[in-house]
Write a structure and sequence with these properties.
It is built from ten helices and 20 strands. The chain is of the alpha/beta class and 340 residues long. It folds into two domains: 221 residues, Rossmann fold; 100 residues, LpxI C-terminal catalytic domain (Cytidine Deaminase, domain 2). Helix 7 packs parallel to helix 8. It starts with a helix and ends in a 7-residue tail after the last strand.
């Protein structure tokens, strides 16, 4: 089954596209999905957590692929981005949400053409905008995200995500595979058992769960600075540690020498809250730390861009074959070389 058919069959309403770096092929993936949606008669809406569709990346000064929208699509984009677009559109709503490029406006495409998209930055605003796109008729909304704004992939906002990766991550194909696999692992962590999840949902704070069901809420301002305090509170009766917010390398390092590490489970909100170095993450896993999540992220596919703007590239078939081996069960697509 093609990716767009999977999306249509499962009635996914909101899907984020997350690039693991600039030039990982995120916009090419979006264009591929737009074309596929048109071919399979799926009405879609699109928006972005940043700015996309411009001809040159403002940060890297590299050429970027334009975004081509078709008649009947719905788009949420900022006023200045809309004025720079070639597609003919009809304004449906002014949202009142402001961005660096002006107010976010919801439009319907009347005549196909190139468009720039610059949508909301906050998760709350993005959830609202996606809802409005669906209100006007979009069956599925694609959100063009970014690794530095990966919170848009949270299950609180989207039903599923697609991860765009590629040669731009490293000249070493092993590092590309490792970084991609790490992200997928974090996103697809096992969900904690329902009774424990319910306890942490009610507490809604970083806390420690004991064997007898008692809860300790440490007096800390942030997780970043509170790792040492939490470490002192973990003992032989600790079963779970729930962290509300970000998991960082420094936080994990504070736990690494705890002799009770193998007996506990670290519970996080979801995979978008993990901001750790791969080596630190793997070291803690080797020491026996088990990590589970309150909300598992549904990774639909990983898309590949075997070409780096720095001038080097990987053989497409080799990259795809090796990615399929380390990510069994995940659909792998090279959208640059034609997709499915």
């Amino acid at each position: 089954m093609r990716l767009i058919e999977t999306i249509k069959h499962n009635n996914y309403e909101t899907i984020s596209i997350i690039g693991l770096a600039k030039n990982a092929g995120k916009t090419v993936t979006l264009n591929y999905l737009i074309e596929e949606a048109f071919n399979f008669n799926l009405r879609i809406g699109i928006t972005s957590t940043g700015r996309d569709g411009e001809s040159t990346d403002l940060v890297t000064q590299t050429e970027k692929p334009p975004i081509f929208v078709t008649e009947g699509m719905y788009v949420a984009t900022a006023k200045k981005a809309l004025l720079l677009s070639k597609a003919k559109t009809e304004i449906l709503e002014t949202t009142g949400i402001t961005t660096a490029m002006g107010e976010v406006i919801i439009v319907r495409v009347r005549q196909g053409g190139y468009i720039q998209i610059a949508g909301p930055v906050s998760g709350t605003d993005m959830k609202y905008v996606a809802g409005r796109l669906k209100h006007y008729g979009a069956e599925t909304v694609f959100i063009d995200g970014a690794i530095d704004r990966k919170a848009v992939s949270s299950p609180v906002i989207t039903d599923a995500c697609i991860i765009a990766t590629g040669a731009v991550l490293s000249r070493d194909i092993k590092k590309v595979l490792e970084k991609t696999a790490h992200t997928v692992e974090c996103y697809t962590l096992k969900e904690v058992d329902a009774p424990v999840k319910e306890i942490f949902e009610k507490t809604d704070k970083t806390c420690i769960l004991k064997e007898d069901g008692s809860i300790i809420v440490p007096n800390i301002k942030t997780n970043i600075m509170g790792g040492k305090k939490i470490n002192t509170l973990i003992d032989e009766e600790t079963t779970h540690v729930f962290v509300k917010g970000a998991i960082t390398s420094s936080f994990l390092k504070d736990l690494k020498d705890n002799k009770y590490l193998r007996g506990i489970k670290l519970i996080i909100e979801d995979g978008t809250k993990i901001f750790t170095d791969i080596n630190v993450w793997n070291e803690l896993k080797r020491k026996g730390l088990k990590v589970e999540t309150m909300n598992r992220i549904n990774v639909l596919a990983v898309t590949l861009n075997p070409i780096s703007p720095a001038g080097y590239f990987f053989d497409s078939d080799t990259l795809k074959d090796r990615m399929e081996k380390i990510l069994p069960g995940i659909k792998i697509l090279d959208v640059v070389s034609g997709g499915e």
